[in-house]
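User: Structure please.
Assistant: Input sequence and predicted structure:
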Amino acid sequence: MRRITRIATVGIASAALALSATACGGKKSSDAGADSGSSGKQIKAALAYDIGGRGDQSFNDAAFAGLEKAEKDLGAKGTEAEPSEGEGDPDKVQRLTALARAGNNPVIGVGFAYATAIAEVAPKFPKTTFGLIDDTSKTGKNIANLVFNEEQGSYLAGVAAAKVTKSNTVGFIGGVETPLIKKFEAGFVQGVKDTKKGVNVKVQYLTQPPDFGGFSKPDLGKAAAEGQIDAGADVVYAAAGLAGSGSIEAAAKAKKWAVGVDSDQYSQKGLSAYKEHILTSVTKDVSGAVYNLIKSVKDGKPQSGEIRYGLDKDGVGLATSNPAYTKLSDVTAAVEKAKADIIAGKITVKTAP
């Protein structure tokens, strides 16, 4: 039986109460951290989700897959905490504090939005490991910065897009214009241009900070993709979390190609109606990073510092689930060559446009 407990933080009192309920029958933990991470004992691990929460068919769901695997393989007990609409750093601080007080170790912030909160909370729980996905700006002895070379996977998507486009116009949709998402843009555009110089790449961002709704609103992604398709794009790549599902829907209905992100979106049940039009997805092994961090704590050797996942470790890449993609031998050959050249250092992928 699956033991994951989900909570929604609506204030420190209610969050703490919800977490206390999940800890009934176990050893009471102190603010300094519990011994739940010791090798041979059951480990309690927690995910604090990014905007969009679980069910985004993308980034958060990839993190959940890692937690679920830890439950199955390591006997871990998992807790999930959802974000609230329009929340700020104080809300994240409350959420992480409640998770740590409940004896979870590690506590993982899914997304760069947790950087400030983890920097504040981690020193108060020195025996608890905190995972921070997609950010290296905040560091500490008990902070593991789990980061990826998104630009490398996006470059491969650019190669594939340039090879399959018939209109010589493709689109990139970013959820929110942040340095992280601009890495996706930079790699994709470079991959397209290096492969076929005459291809026009249309770039659009759904929202600007501090409005992060571009990661959570499928209608915005759908409208943006429809606009790019109307302007001639026959391949649309969206790095936009939950909003990306809207762009995939738009591409499928127009019988154009969509490129997914973070998870293998061809295999996501929530997108099954559109799967035939999901050419490939730029994958990030977020699930592996989450699992590896949990295992490191259980083994008594918790990870800390920068843990980077790139093409060389299959930490990023392109999904091959769609048979229509694998049948395009010229496309797959070009992608594999580009991958080999990046790993060999023959191609340096830009991290900014």
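The chain has a mean pLDDT of 90.
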